[in-house]
């Protein structure tokens, strides 16, 4: 194992830990740092993506719009970069994405729609995506149903 691989794993572990912090500012910084981390990598291993998805899942349900926006952008970047290699890990994001489809903030709703569409076309088979999105048609929030 190369030293750069080990430092990369350490950096990723620190980002994941910071994303689970109780401090909103630290979670926001962690999501931004994770975006920068992903953008600086030429190749992204599926194992690293799995760790990032685990960090993104709670961030998508965060009360801070900045954290949610960053998490949606990061998830979109992962989908674009990894495509169907992200499929086994992406299934855990459907429930938080559905909740964000009904967000009161239009910018978050739009990003959630973009993520759902890109996930359904690039990361998972369309039939699986439709099954995951089906509960949204009967959701209590009218924006989600829309």
TrEMBL record:
This is TOG domain-containing protein. SUPFAM superfamilies: ARM repeat (SSF48371). It holds the Pfam family CEP104-like_TOG. Transmembrane segments: none annotated. It comes from the Eukaryota.
